[in-house]
Design a protein that fits this description.
Layout (H helix, E strand, L loop, with lengths): L5 H21 L3 H20 L1 H15 L6 H30 L21 H8 L4 H7 L2 H18 L4 H22 L2 H15 L2 H4 L3 H27 L3 H18 L6 H10 L4 H14 L3 H17 L6 H13 L11 H11 L4 H6 L3 H27 L4 H5 L30
Helix pairs in contact: 1-2, 1-9, 1-12, 2-9, 3-7, 3-8, 3-14, 4-11, 4-14, 4-15, 4-16, 4-19, 11-15, 11-19, 12-13, 12-19, 13-14, 13-19, 14-19, 15-16, 15-17, 15-19, 16-17
């Protein structure tokens, strides 16, 4: 396996998982379906285990690292601006596909039996939920949004304190390195996790379950595919003057892992190393990728809620107007942090439905197929989290274009377990080219 590329290992796990899933479903092998579920669940659980320390230390270190980046404030603003631009494009595509396909028309579902999910979101919950009442509780409960808030505040304070805070920053750097190393061990198990996750999905979700929601499922996949394979390449060409094929060659391991793991935060180390391999300076990537992994959700927070809101409105016979569609766009851009990079997009969906005044029970109609939808949503999320820093670095003149041109020609994980990003940053990587 050492000479077998990592992405090929994941692909092999995907193929074997599909085969075993079909075998379990066709022959009603409950023990096989249960085993696949356990294997996939353990893999996701291991990824989630590292989320609290990973997010906190990564953001603290990334904020402090901005001290050494030229024009850090401008880079941060441009990153956020591109986050917003791509989110608007994604939600526009979601609304457009929803209007073209009418995913809720003719759907025969028992709406009377639909109930609101246990986890719901509202603007009040979102705003008050940012600030934790107990810092320890945020880590114990795994509330990523609150952890992000704490990390930003602590990192900014450490940045302003300066030299006196350096011992604290070094501790965070050490913890981050340890967590990332441990997480890479987990990521090495991705082929096995892929087998379990995909196998269970195939065994659990047959056509009889997907048939009533086939149009909606297809619309979500088509919308994400358009953003992933049309919008992002066009932005790379027009805004960054970059070859999209080289981008996908470098970022594909992260996109692939995101598809099977359904976790932007769990995929974050792979995303960051992929972005660095594309030639983005490490100091900037260490800031942009962690923030993107928790706030940049074109799939979960833009395309999906737009299509789902149209679906729910049509199923319940509610007409949406232009103002409602504008409100969907606003919620998608401003409220995307509510998804917090974890599996699923129920919080963001219920936030959108409550803002539009649509029945929250409508979200319950989609829960059955949420894992199937979450795979393509998360892959789109992670691709966007890699596209934005690449474009910003290209426009700022700090992108290593030689590295970008050679992206994907080496395996992300070498045979000895090291990575191709274990290199010192060049001094010229942090200085923008003359205008």
């Amino acid at each position: 396996m050492r000479k077998f590329p990592f992405s090929a290992q994941i692909l092999l796990g995907l193929v074997l998982g599909v085969a075993l899933g079909f075998l379990a479903r066709a022959n009603d092998l409950s023990w096989l379906a249960s085993t696949l579920d356990t294997v996939g669940g353990l893999f996701v659980q291991l990824l989630k285990l590292a989320v609290p320390p990973l997010v906190f230390t990564a953001i603290v270190v990334s904020v402090v690292s901005l001290r050494g980046v030229a024009n850090a404030a401008r880079l941060a603003l441009k990153t956020l601006l591109w986050f917003g631009i791509t989110a608007l494009i994604a939600v526009g595509i979601g609304i457009g596909i929803g209007l073209l396909t009418d995913p809720g028309r003719g759907v025969t579902l028992d709406v009377g039996g639909a109930t609101a999910p246990k986890t719901t979101g509202s603007w009040t919950d979102f705003l008050t939920g940012i600030v934790p009442t107990n810092p320890v509780g945020a880590f114990v409960e795994g509330n990523v949004l609150q952890i992000v808030f704490l990390a930003v505040v602590v990192g900014a304070a450490a940045l302003l304190v300066g030299a006196a805070a350096e011992p604290f920053v070094e501790v965070n750097r050490a913890v981050l390195s340890i967590v990332q190393k441990a997480l890479w061990w987990v990521i090495r198990l991705a082929p096995i996790g892929t087998l379990g996750l995909i196998g269970h999905a195939v065994a659990a979700y047959g056509w009889d379950l997907l048939a009533p929601l086939a149009k909606f499922t297809t619309a979500v996949y088509v919308g994400c595919a358009i953003v992933l394979f049309v919008v992002y390449p066009l932005l790379l060409v027009t805004a960054g003057r970059l070859n999209p094929l080289r981008f996908f060659a470098g970022a594909w391991p992260a996109i692939e892992l995101a598809f099977v793991s359904r976790s932007s935060v769990g995929t974050m180390p792979v995303t960051q190393r992929s972005v660095e391999r594309l030639g983005v300076p490490r100091e900037y990537a260490s800031f942009a990728v962690p923030f993107g992994a928790t706030t940049k959700m074109d799939g979960c927070a833009a395309i999906y809620p737009a299509l789902a809101a149209i679906f729910v409105a049509q199923v319940f016979g509610v007409d949406l107007g232009v103002g409602d569609y504008l409100l969907i766009a606003f919620v998608s851009v401003v409220g995307s942090a509510a998804t917090a990079g974890l599996t699923g997009a129920i919080v963001m969906l219920t936030l959108t439905l409550s803002t539009l005044g649509l029945p929250l029970a409508g979200a319950g109609l989609l829960l059955a197929i949420d894992p199937i939808l979450d795979m393509i949503r998360t892959a789109t999320n992670v691709a966007g989290q890699a596209v934005v820093p690449t474009i910003v670095a290209a426009r700022e003149g700090t992108l290593d274009r030689d590295a970008y041109a050679n992206a994907g020609r080496r395996d992300l994980i070498d045979a000895d377990g090291s990575t191709d990003t274990d290199r010192p940053a060049r001094s010229d990587e942090l200085t923008p080219a003359p205008a």
